[in-house]
Write a structure and sequence with these properties.
The chain is α/β, with parallel strands linked by helices. The protein has two domains: 129 residues, Alpha-Beta Complex (Aspartate Aminotransferase, domain 1), CATH 3.90.1150; 233 residues, Aspartate Aminotransferase, domain 2, CATH 3.40.640.10. It has 15 helices and 13 strands. Helix 3 runs antiparallel to helix 12 and helix 4 packs parallel to helix 12. The chain is globular, with a radius of gyration of 21 Å. The N and C termini lie far apart (48 Å).
Length: 393
């Protein structure tokens, strides 16, 4: 058997290309702003996670440029060896302070945070309780560990409690969930998860990738939003959404972070995050703290679009965040709708199996603080036109 045979048998993408519905790896010729350029066409961007609109903020870009001029474009090694700069240490101290934690550790990617942390923390005597809609990075981190995975129904505390009751009390238990789920934009029922964590003696790992900078009075995420920060043991965040660059971090107690720092393979065998990215995060944090009105504008845009989309007749999949997904159903019309919307000047993300269950394919839209009402209304016009054209509304 040829190890490459699976590549020859993989026809899903070539079939989509032949049908004219291939919409992956689309080229964008401009920054991730509310309007982007694609093949010379101006397109309203409803597919970016640039929630606070900071990737093009002058202060963020200036900070990245200044750090690059001082330190160069990279660190040429891992954090463990030669790759730790003073700016890395300063950022970790700043993140720990911002998140109200004893310590924080920066990783080169958000994916690497989840893979590195979960794979090194879970041992043979541990069980990871996973929401059925957890991100691939959480699932992969558990798969790389020696722990046993146990899934519970999405956002279902009753099913989580049932699963917790099946575990030997001598086993270690880690509940790993997301604050905001990236497919449907719904929020974890965190207070109920915290109650179960305490009752069954588990630990709680919270992925705040899509809620950091968005939820909470100070932008610390869903844990702050619900007032349960002290009951969450580990908080993960990414830099690739509200914090305007690439990378991620884990925050928690000093002893746990120190253990991860010296045992997470995705940390110690990966090149350090570039200094320009580090400086961009610091500048983004400054703006988040000094301009809370950005978060207010983001929520104004989000609520406006949710009301308007539901008024048009779209099923918004229970969204409670700036991610608003529109249920289509089957894969083919989902691709068709995304293609037609791009032709009409709106960029959206088609989401289909296996990312979602069969028959639940959707168009995922997401919003920025920097979208204007005129841009949103332009997008609504296209969504209404294409939705009616394809009999989705």
């Amino acid at each position: 058997m040829d190890v490459f045979q699976k590549c020859k048998d993989f026809t899903r993408v070539s079939d989509a290309r032949s049908a004219g519905y291939y919409l992956m790896y689309r080229e964008i010729e401009s920054p991730q702003d509310p309007v982007v350029t694609m093949n010379g066409q101006k397109v309203v961007m409803l597919g970016s996670m640039n929630y606070l609109g900071l990737t093009s903020h002058p202060k963020v870009k200036e900070a990245a440029v200044a750090a690059t001029l001082k330190y160069g474009t990279g660190c040429a090694g891992s954090r463990l060896l030669n790759g730790t700069l003073d700016v890395h240490v300063r950022l970790e101290e700043r993140l720990a302070q911002f998140m109200n934690r004893e310590a924080a550790l920066v990783f080169s990617t958000g994916y690497g945070v989840n893979v590195g942390v979960l794979s090194c923390l879970l041992d043979r005597h541990d069980v990871a309780l996973l929401d059925s809609m957890d991100h691939a990075s959480i699932l992969d981190g558990v798969r790389l560990s020696f722990g046993k995975p146990m899934k519970f129904r999405h956002n279902d505390p009753a099913d989580l409690e049932k699963k917790l009751g099946l575990i030997d009390e001598k086993k270690g238990k880690l509940i790993a969930i997301e604050g905001v789920y990236s497919m449907e934009g719904d929020v974890a029922p965190l207070p109920e998860m915290v109650r179960l964590k305490k009752e069954y003696g588990a630990r709680l790992f919270l992925d705040e990738a899509h809620s950091l900078g968005v939820f909470g009075e100070n932008g610390r995420g869903v844990a702050e939003h619900f007032g349960v920060e002290d009951d969450v043991d580990l908080v993960m965040g990414t830099f690739s959404k509200s914090l305007a660059t690439v990378g991620g971090f884990i925050a928690g107690s000093f002893e746990v972070i120190d253990y991860i720092k010296h045992n997470a393979r995705a940390q110690i065998f990966t090149a350090a995050i570039p200094p320009g990215a580090v400086a961009a995060v610091e500048a983004a944090l400054d703006i988040i703290e000094s301009e809370p009105e950005r978060r207010e504008r983001l929520w104004e845009n989000t609520e406006y679009m949710r009301v308007e989309l539901e008024g048009l007749g779209f099923e918004t999949c229970g969204s409670q965040s700036p991610i608003i997904s529109l249920l289509v159903g089957e894969d083919a019309p989902t691709f068709h709708m995304a293609k037609r919307l791009q032709e009409e000047g709106v960029f959206v993300n088609p989401v289909m199996t296996p990312a979602v269950p069969a028959g639940q394919s959707m168009i995922r839209t997401s919003y920025m603080a920097t979208h204007t009402r005129e841009q949103l209304d332009q997008a609504l016009g296209a969504l209404a036109k294409v939705g009616r054209e394809l009999s989705i509304i």
